[in-house]
Amino acid sequence: MDLGIRGKKALVCGASKGLGRACAEALAMEGVHVTIVARTAADLEKTAQEIRAMAAATGATVQAVACDITTPEGRAQALAACPDPDILVNNAGGPPPGDFRDWERKDWIAALDANMLTPIELIKATVDGMIARKFGRIVNITSGAVKAPIANLGLSNGARAGLTGFVAGLSRQVAANNVTINNLLPGPFETDRLRSNLANVAKTGGKTVEEVAAARRNANPARRFGTVEEFGATCAFMCSAQAGYMIGQNILLDGGAFPGTL
């Protein structure tokens, strides 16, 4: 399927590795000119070079901007490099796990800055241009915890739920202009973050990482973890011309782990 976005411009956050990188790759393979953002310059440039090679035949360009997107200065750098994106993929690492009794105000503010306020600021900076051009696709990478909160991820549960509520309202306000805003909710995917979480669980429980990973896979109806390629392909479709009727939705990719009907 031709997704109808060749030649469009995309700003993809948290894109040096993992799910963000997968989204950038999938978009570049569709001929989208991609600006990728992450904090570590060396990792980001390596990723940019690899995506350029993969997507060379499509005519897509890839530029890398090393900055902290959760700061005003970082957002200014990213937007200076890609001031009028047609596609925005918001993505930031989740806050650490823990017990809410141990968190102070600064912990909550950091979580809100990264996982709620930064996406809102980037939407604010780009959505009017999308409205004027009568095309825009905004995808916020959040978490399956939005649908089924995870007990020790209270900071993430709260911040991402706040963003979800905001998007539910705004997405309906801009939909008539062919601008869509949706959320993409990952469950367990084969990423560095998952491997780190499994290692922490193994250490705490006195088990091997292999034992913990096997138990986690077997508990999932799909009996496996998701691949980043699957995630990127879903994101690319949500950014496509054909996805213009998808408004304010929370698209859950978790292998069937969430047991609810709705």
Notable characteristics:
globular; alpha/beta; 7-stranded parallel beta sheet; about 260 residues
Q: What's the arrangement of strands in the largest beta sheet?
A: 3-2-1-4-5-6-7
Per DSSP, the total helix count is 8
Could you name the ranges where pLDDT drops below 50 across 5 or more consecutive residues?
none
Radius of gyration computed on alpha carbons: 18 Å
Main beta sheet strand tally, sense and closure: 7 strands, parallel
State the helicity in percent bands: 40-55%
Total beta strand runs: 7
End-to-end separation? 28 Å
Provide the succession of SSEs.
EHEHEHEHEHEHHHE
Measured by DSSP, the beta-strand proportion falls in 5-15%
Class based on secondary structure composition and strand pairing = alpha/beta
The best one-word shape is globular
Mean pLDDT: 96
List the helices and strands and how they pair.
Layout: E1 9-12, H1 18-29, E2 33-38, H2 41-54, E3 62-66, H3 72-81, E4 87-90, H4 105-133, E5 136-141, H5 154-174, E6 179-186, H6 192-205, H7 209-219, H8 228-238, E7 250-253
Parallel strand pairs: 1-2, 1-4, 2-3, 4-5, 5-6, 6-7
Provide a compact summary of the structure.
The chain has 262 residues and is α/β, with parallel strands linked by helices.
Structure description:
Helix 1 packs parallel to helix 2, helix 1 crosses helix 8 (228-238) and helix 6 packs across helix 7 (209-219). The protein is globular and about 55 Å long. The chain contains 8 helices and 7 strands; from the N terminus they run E-H-E-H-E-H-E-H-E-H-E-H-H-H-E. It is 47% helix and 14% strand.
